[in-house]
Design a protein that fits this description.
With 272 residues, the chain is mainly alpha-helical. The protein contains six helices and no strands. It is rod-shaped, with a radius of gyration of 65 Å.
Length: 272
């Protein structure tokens, strides 16, 4: 039940928020002003109508007074003073009524003039407020558009989009570092040295072929064909060798064998 009442409350609040929208409030205020203006115009019409009725009654009373005076004048000319006196009495009663009507008419004219001025001012105020309402509605719409733009900008995120670039760049750097480390290890290993020796041999062969090509093209004189063999004899007076252990003797034997194979390799390289 509590959830149901909370739901009703939420619906009511949402409806009130919509009703309190500046657009709706300004439209209602404009309708109220128009309604008040129409009601005041109706009252002004009624006041003018009453003023016109008083004017008609006053005109009739003045005509009646003039007619009675003419009749009294005619009776006097005919020598009928009694009838002339009666006409004058009626004229006097009519003149008293005319005075009252004139006073009421003057008040009505003054009131109508004030009502007209008030209606005119109200019309000007309604036009002014209507223009202000239109400007305020435009400002409200602009504010809503700006809020929508701000909300849209608040929802924009660029960090996640660029995280992939950063991660890829970091992976590439790691791969480059690993390749450099492997290259460094390869250069310091036996296999790496073998590769380096092979590369040096290829470079020597390439240089030799290049020299032969230059000789064929006549770009350099042919080298002397004599070859000088130098034999270096190294005699060493045997000295008494110190006593060594079996392990040391085996290690020395391995070193001697490695040096002998290296010397043989150097001879083959010179012969080629």
């Amino acid at each position: 039940m509590k959830r149901f009442f909370n739901w009703l409350k939420a619906i009511f609040n949402r409806g009130m928020d919509k009703l309190e929208s500046p657009d709706i409030m300004l439209d209602q205020a404009r309708r109220d002003m128009q309604g008040a203006l129409i009601a005041n115009r109706e009252k002004a019409v009624q006041a003018i109508t009453q003023k016109n009725r008083l004017q008609g009654m006053l005109d009739d009373a003045k005509k009646k007074s003039a007619q009675l005076e003419a009749q009294a004048t005619m009776a006097l000319k005919q020598g009928n003073r009694e009838l002339a006196t009666q006409f004058m009495r009626e004229k006097m009663n009519g003149d008293a009524s005319i005075a009252t009507l004139q006073q009421s008419y003057d008040q009505a004219v003054q009131t109508v003039d004030q009502v007209k001025v008030a209606i005119k001012r109200q019309e000007e105020e309604v036009r002014k407020k209507t223009a202000e309402a239109l400007a305020m509605k435009a400002q409200w719409q602009q504010a809503q558009i700006q809020n929508s733009i701000s909300k849209a900008l608040e929802g924009l995120t660029f960090e996640n989009q660029f995280e992939g670039f950063g991660a890829a760049q970091e992976k590439i750097r790691e791969a480059q570092s690993e390749a450099a480390a492997r290259q460094e290890m390869l250069g310091s290993s036996i296999q790496g040295k073998i590769y380096q020796m092979e590369d040096s041999a290829r470079d020597l062969e390439a240089e030799s072929e290049l020299d032969k090509l230059e000789e064929r093209l006549g770009l350099r004189p042919a080298a002397a064909a004599a070859t000088v063999d130098q034999t270096v004899s190294v005699s060493a007076s045997p000295a008494a060798a110190p006593e060594v252990s079996a392990d040391q003797a085996a290690e020395q034997a391995k070193m001697s064998e490695a040096e002998a194979q290296l010397a043989e390799l150097e001879k083959r390289l010179k012969g080629s």
